[in-house]
Design goal:
The complex is a heterodimer of chains A (115) and B (117). Helices cover 0% and strands 52% of the residues of chain A. With 115 residues, chain A is mainly beta. In chain A, strands 2, 4, 5, 9, 10 and 11 form a six-stranded mixed β-sheet that branches. A five-stranded antiparallel β-sheet of chain A has the order 1-3-8-7-6, with no helix packed on it. Chain A starts with a strand and ends with a strand. Chain B is globular.
């Protein structure tokens, strides 16, 4: 069974204080690791897809990296508008039981950036 | 980007009644849609996979007679919570992929907040 663990659960940052979020995963045959941002009362918003160890993706102040066991989401010089819950999810191998392209999510990291 | 629309955004109902939630893919066709449930300060838990033209696939522990799913067209899936009880109060979110590629992300609707009184 696919497992995803995110840490820390919550992170309080001062504006401009860079930090990293961790996503550890266990899956046999990774078909993709996904990062999402979720604002309160909203559905998750897609940020990145990573597939291969060593792969990196960037978008504004966010950078995602991937190893064989974990992924990091680096937030560089965050601003208050970066405050949100960041979710990591994995897509495992296709199997008879697996439901197509479903994603298994971690518990998320709630990020609060104070001005 | 792909757009998934959910309706209603919130609903309050009395215990014992049924509630229908709609999920539409606005700019693409989706043969498969996924229904997730999220409790406060918790992550998303997959409830079921909605398959166009065939029966839904439910995750272990999810009552299929309580959470009825219908995927009647390539752009519409509905989730009906039957005989709702207060413990069914939650945030329900649907999602779909634009295509079947292994690295194709799921795009999510904005969720439906269900409160059962």
């Amino acid at each position: 069974e696919d497992q995803v663990t995110q840490s820390p659960e919550a992170l309080r940052l001062q504006e401009g204080e860079s930090s990293s979020l961790n996503c550890s995963y266990t899956v046999s045959g990774l078909r993709g690791l996904f990062w999402y941002r979720q604002d309160p009362g909203k559905g998750p918003e897609f940020l990145f897809t990573l597939y291969s160890a060593g792969e990196e993706k960037e978008k504004e102040r966010l950078k995602a990296t991937l190893t064989k066991k974990e992924s990091f989401l680096h937030i560089t010089a965050p601003k208050p508008e970066d405050s949100a819950t960041y979710l990591c999810a994995v897509r495992g191998p296709v199997s008879i039981k697996a439901a197509g392209n479903k994603l298994t999510f971690g518990g998320g990291t709630r990020v609060l950036v104070k001005p | 980007g792909a757009v998934v629309s959910q309706h209603p955004s919130w609903v309050i109902c009395k215990s014992g009644t049924s509630v229908k939630i709609e999920c539409r893919s606005l700019d693409f066709q989706a043969t498969t849609m996924f229904w997730y449930r999220q409790f406060p300060k918790q992550s998303l838990m997959l409830m079921a996979t909605s398959n166009e033209g065939s029966k839904a696939t439910y995750e272990q522990g999810v009552e299929k007679d309580k959470f009825l799913i219908n995927h009647a067209s390539l752009t519409l899936s509905t989730l009906t919570v039957t005989s709702a009880h207060p413990e069914d109060s939650s945030f329900y979110i649907c999602s779909a992929s634009r295509d079947r590629a292994y690295n194709s992300p799921l795009h999510f609707g904005n969720g439906t907040r269900l409160t059962v009184t």
